[in-house]
Specification:
alpha/beta, two-stranded antiparallel ribbon, 16 helices
């Protein structure tokens, strides 16, 4: 069995995260529901498009199946030492693909048996699992939107197996990420056929989950641009429109990633707010992007401003359960030692723990509620109230406008609002 021998001292223990500390009647652990991403933490080698991997891991020298078994030991030891209760994985993260689908499934069965045993021994839980239908060259034209019907069938077979694994391990959610569900050019694309096929694929997945009795929440993870020119799941709003069109919205919620929001040209809070307003916020991939790099850098979240505003949306959503905060993040290429896996997770845990405390205090003070109420006060009475309640037409509104002698707008004082948010963060930080 692998032994990581991480030594925790004052410098590396969480400063703000205390799993048992209660905030608004729930412990931090219950609010945050932290999860370890199998792929970035245990299979990532820290390579990039311009350089080979730099990660140094105890299991590097083992053959593929022995490596897969060693990683099972490693992740459960890691969760024990960090106090994280959940983990997530793609099928190919936990077991190597074979030369045939049958061989791949056999590898999965062997590793899933080990994982299930570890889960029973430790009480650790699977937040969600998913299927990697994007890395292998068979997915060159997409997966469920491929122009090749054989690839569509292969994709379905892989998801079928992953749903069976979800049932076996009690996965609380199941994620669909369309890594290659999009197109490079409309010059050779039947977009309607591809989207129709994607909808049929989701309906088949729903039907099979019902057939085997899998009760987990289905999640879609939006992402723009990368790797295709135009992803069909560009952002939450686009994906929501797709779900509504095909009558799928009652079966799905969204797994929202901070870095994906950035790539879509939105703030993390925007994506969370849209999902919350439409009762579609399911889970979160907790990371951040780099403002000067235009790709998916998957950095660990350390920006208190972002985590505070994210936790505000999550708290106003009533929490994330059965979803959680999955650290879909990796150390930088220069943070290559095994100990960096722990240190980076602690940094992310602290960032969200502080964000939780600040957001809770802001909600208690009705900070944003008072600002918004004041800004839209003209809709609380008179002609504004009539507009909101649908009691006026263009004719009544014209009569009202004709009687106006002046229109007085108020300043938003946005800079002051941001300064006050800074004060909340500084005050909590200094406690």
């Amino acid at each position: 069995m692998l032994k990581l021998y991480y030594k925790f001292n004052f410098a590396t223990e969480p400063k703000y995260y205390n799993a048992d500390e209660k905030i608004n009647g729930k412990t931090m652990a219950e609010h945050l529901r932290f999860s370890v991403a199998y792929w970035h933490t245990f299979t990532e080698d820290l390579s990039d498009p311009f350089g080979v991997g730099t990660a140094l891991r105890d299991w590097d020298s083992l053959d593929e199946m022995e490596k897969a078994k060693a990683r099972v030991d490693a992740i459960f030891e890691f969760m024990d030492k960090t106090g994280i209760e959940y983990f997530c994985f793609h099928d190919v993260d936990i077991a190597p693909e074979g030369n045939t689908l049958e061989e791949s499934n056999k590898n999965l069965d062997e590793i899933v048996e080990l994982i299930k045993k570890k889960m029973n021994e430790t009480g650790k839980k699977l937040l969600w699992n998913t299927t990697n239908n994007f890395t292998h060259e068979r997915f060159v034209h997409g997966a469920a939107t491929s122009s090749n019907a054989d690839v569509f069938a292969y994709t379905a077979a892989k998801v079928k197996k992953s749903l069976e694994i979800a049932k076996t391990l009690g996965s609380e959610n199941f994620v669909f990420w369309g890594g290659r569900e999009g197109y490079e050019s409309l010059l050779n694309t039947d977009m309607k056929l591809e989207l129709d096929n994607l909808a049929k694929f989701f309906k088949m997945a729903i039907a099979y989950a019902e057939e085997i009795g899998y009760k987990g929440q289905f999640l879609i993870e939006p992402k723009p641009k990368e790797p295709t020119t135009h992803q069909y799941d560009t952002d939450v709003a686009t994906s929501h429109a797709f779900l509504q069109k095909y009558d799928l919205d009652k079966h799905f919620k969204f797994n929202i990633e901070a870095n994906h929001a950035t790539l879509a040209g939105h703030s993390f809070q925007h994506e969370l707010r849209y999902a919350r307003d439409n009762q579609m916020l399911g889970s979160v991939d907790a990371n951040q992007g780099h403002p000067q790099l235009g790709w998916d850098t998957d950095e660990f979240p350390t920006d208190f401003y972002d985590t505070t505003l994210a936790m505000y949306e999550i708290l106003k959503n009533g929490g994330l359960a059965p979803g959680g905060l999955n650290f879909d993040a990796k150390p930088r290429r220069t943070s290559f030692k095994q100990e960096d896996l722990v240190l980076t997770h602690i940094a992310g845990m602290d960032a969200f723990a502080l964000g939780l405390r600040v957001a809770s205090k802001m909600i208690e003070d009705e900070f944003f509620e008072k600002i918004v109420e004041k800004k839209y006060s003209s809709f609380a009475s008179g002609i504004g109230k009539q507009i909101v309640e649908g009691e006026v037409s263009f004719k009544e509104l014209e009569n009202h406008a004709l009687n106006l002698t002046t229109i007085d707008n108020e300043s938003d004082h946005l800079e002051v609002i941001k300064s006050e948010i800074n004060q909340y963060i500084l005050n909590i930080n200094n406690q």
